[in-house]
Amino acid sequence: MRSLIICVAQPPCAALDVAANALAHAEAVRTAGARVVVFPEMSLTGYELDAPVLSEDDPRLDPLIAACAETGTIALAGAPVQGPYIATLAIDEDGARVAYLKQNPGGAETRRFLAGPCPEVIEVDGWRLGLAICRDTGIRRHRADTAALGIDAYVAGATDHPADDVVMAERARQVSTTFGVWVAFAGFAGPTGGGYPQTAGRSGIWAPDGSEQARAGRQPGELVRATLVSSPRRLPSS
Predict the structure, then answer these.
(1) Which CATH number is 82's domain given?
(2) Given the DSSP bridges, would you call strands 74-81 and 85-92 parallel, antiparallel or unpaired?
(3) How far apart are the first and last CA of the chain?
């Protein structure tokens, strides 16, 4: 058997304050004790649809890069990037890079943001993690196209209204049981922009049989983790 410790985190977020949010992300990384920490959609800026784009070499990310270096963690954080797109950044000891661009922006997002070109996977210690952002998780084609890349887990950051935490949980169960993969969703908690005076929180991790393995509450600052296990059908990259 092989294993991977993954954490879903919902740190407090200050609107448009990348420096403060990077520090909050760094604290979560140090607390998590996980190889991978997943953060919500646009977690580094808040769900602020007019937020300036963030570059991969922005020095405000340095505290988060340092925390990842100290702990051996890969952080999957959200931000708007050049395009503009809504993106997932993969951050580790070597810095930040754009790992995925949201393919299915919706509502007010479409007035500013472009649709990303394709599904993406990152590999961590031989585990293939398929990436998604919020609305992507409800699009059957996205789920199927991502699963077709040969994933072990489907990982997403999200922003939801409080009543929609049940929707995200049901999507997680559908993905896990349909494709036989782990699912990890990190959702915003507390207020943010874009018409969200409150958000759902309730970040969670589900096993391939659809069972809930870990679930956070609704408060900012909460995080939960789980150890993903599977048969050794892939060897880690050398």
Answers:
(1) 3.60.110.10
(2) antiparallel
(3) 18
Q: Is position 235 within any domain?
A: no
Which residue range is the domain that position 98 belongs to? 2-230
Which long-range contacts does 22-29 make (Cβ < 8 Å, 24+ apart)? 22/60, 22/61, 22/62, 22/63, 22/64, 23/63, 23/64, 25/64, 25/67, 25/75, 25/77, 26/63, 26/64, 26/66, 26/67, 27/67, 28/223, 29/64, 29/67, 29/68, 29/71, 29/73, 29/75
Type of residue at 174: Q
How many domains would you assign to the chain?
1
pLDDT tens digits along 10-27: 999 999 999 999 999 999
- Residue 174 is assigned to a structural domain of this protein: yes
pLDDT tens string 69-124 = 999 999 999 999 999 999 999 999 999 999 999 999 999 999 999 999 999 999 99
Phi then psi dihedrals of residue 153, to 5 deg: -150, 150
Does pTM top 0.85 for this prediction?
yes
Residue 237 maps to a domain: no
Mean model confidence pLDDT for the chain: 96
**CB neighbour burial string for 152-180, b if at least 16 within 10 angstroms, e if fewer:** bbbbbbbbbeeebbeebbebbbbbbbebe
The predicted pLDDT at position 231 comes to: 59
Backbone torsions φ then ψ of 123, nearest 5 degrees: -110, 130
236 inside domain: no
Whether the Cβ atoms of residue 140 and residue 162 lie closer than 8 Å to each other: no
- Give dist(CA 79, CA 98) in Å, integer: 9
pLDDT single digits (tens) 134-152:
999 999 999 999 999 999 9
